[in-house]
Amino acid sequence: MEVNCEDCAGCCMDWQSLLADGDASTTARDADGGDGRRTDRQRARKPFAGRDDDREASREPLDDDTNFVPLTRDEVRAFLESGMGAALQPRFWHARTESEGVEIDGRTVAAVAGRPVFFVGLRKPPKPVAPFGREEPTWLPTCVFLDPTTLQCRIHDGDLYPDECRAYPEHNLALEQETECERVESAFGGDRLLEADHDDPGGLLLGSQAIGAKLFCHPRPDDLEGVVDRAAAGALTRRDRAELIAVAAASSPGTPAISDHHYERAKTRVLGTNEGNSADGESWVGPAIRDWYQRYRESRKAVPSPTVADAVETDRGAPETPDWDALE
Q1: How large is the average pLDDT for residues 91-110?
Q2: DSSP type of residue 268
Q3: E strands in the chain
Q4: CA distances from 185 to 10, 30, 67, 166, 168 (A)
Q5: pTM score, two decimals?
Q6: Is there a contact between 119 and 68 (Cβ–Cβ < 8 Å)?
Q7: Given its phi and psi angles, is residue 271 left (phi above 0), alpha (psi -120 to 50 degrees) or beta?
């Protein structure tokens, strides 16, 4: 697989608002220091948000992340062990029909055997970025691990680099789905997907094999009252995320079973790292996310240079990235 990623990172950020009016919108507040309620424009982009029309029901996600990267159970555990629980974000879906869902907060959430199902992926705090050859940076929801200066991944090829990122865009091509490379080409021109041949990739985890390995089942739907509402509003709290991430970390591949020991351990780790408990080994991730949201709230119109990431991320211990010339 050959792709041209320089000056792009379209698969690592939500760039759709660049097409609307040139002014990106992102969450106004973050759940670590307030809430992350979505703007009117973001809600307008969501085709099934209200579920109050006559369109055919579909398994639409509750959130607006256009390129959510699902992590496996083992990857969730690895991030927790590295003190990076703050980087993780759950995702729910609307059920296609009432028979395949469970009612929570007035929504029929997709479920398996009466248990609400969800993914765990990576958060996208607002960062000042200038992708696709733009001269001026814009605040865009951007993967927590993307360096906004070089538009390169800080954990690329490292032990924590997600398999789904490593296999992109090969998985999309294998499933005969449009890739982000092609969407960027259509919107901004240039050549991104340079070679579209692919092997039969492993790790897709489709159907029942995904349960407990990538698709997680919450065993107590009643505990999610209020959580689903906040997920739909982009306002998950630390404790909301801790509950769901703990279930993911405690899951057993191939079954909906949950390990109580792993659940308690994971929940303690997530709450510890998010609340700044350095004794539990908080990494640079949590403080950097909180800093990005604070800077966004204070300077939405005066967008800083992407090089401010040196103070927000690198000075806190984030791995540096090479420039593109070093990779040639």
Answers
A1: 94
A2: H
A3: 2-3, 88-91, 101-104, 107-112, 115-122, 126-129, 138-141, 146-147, 152-153, 193-195, 216-217
A4: 10, 31, 16, 21, 16
A5: 0.87
A6: yes
A7: alpha
